[in-house]
Design goal:
CATH topology: Glutamine Phosphoribosylpyrophosphate, subunit 1, domain 1
CATH class: Alpha Beta
Structural class: alpha+beta
CATH superfamily: Aminohydrolase, N-terminal nucleophile (Ntn) domain
Largest sheet: 3 strands, antiparallel
Number of domains: 1
Helix content: 10-25%
Shape: globular
Strand content: 15-25%
Order of helices and strands: EHEEEEH
Radius of gyration: 15 Å
Number of helices: 2
Strand order of the largest sheet: 1-3-2
Distance between the termini: 14 Å
């Protein structure tokens, strides 16, 4: 399972945040990512990745699409069927991940 770290309401110390994310390496040894925004409300996401479904860089998290950002840990078992249904409605997908 992946490891997720987040803080809202303030911008964390960058070094402390990275150290905390490093403590989750055992949860996600295949990569890490950090996303931060501070415009309207400060939020920072950190993600340690365990690559299972989509091992390419396209499955890297936190993921962004336009103004939306997500970091996700879990499994959507019927995501191929959902992806097919949404594709028929015009949605496009940038990875083979269930996120």
């Amino acid at each position: 399972m992946c490891g997720i770290l987040g803080i809202a309401g303030r911008i964390p110390d960058r070094l402390q945040f990275r150290r905390a994310l490093d403590l989750l390496q055992h949860r996600g040894p295949d990569g890490q990512g950090i996303w931060q925004q501070s415009e309207t409300y400060p939020v920072t996401f950190g993600h340690r990745r365990l690559s299972i479904l989509d091992i390419s860089a396209a499955g890297h998290q936190p993921m962004q699409r336009g103004s939306l950002t997500i970091t996700f840990n879990g499994e959507i078992y019927n995501f191929p069927e959902l992806q097919q249904q949404l594709s028929k409605k015009g949605w496009t997908f940038q990875s083979g991940s269930d996120t």
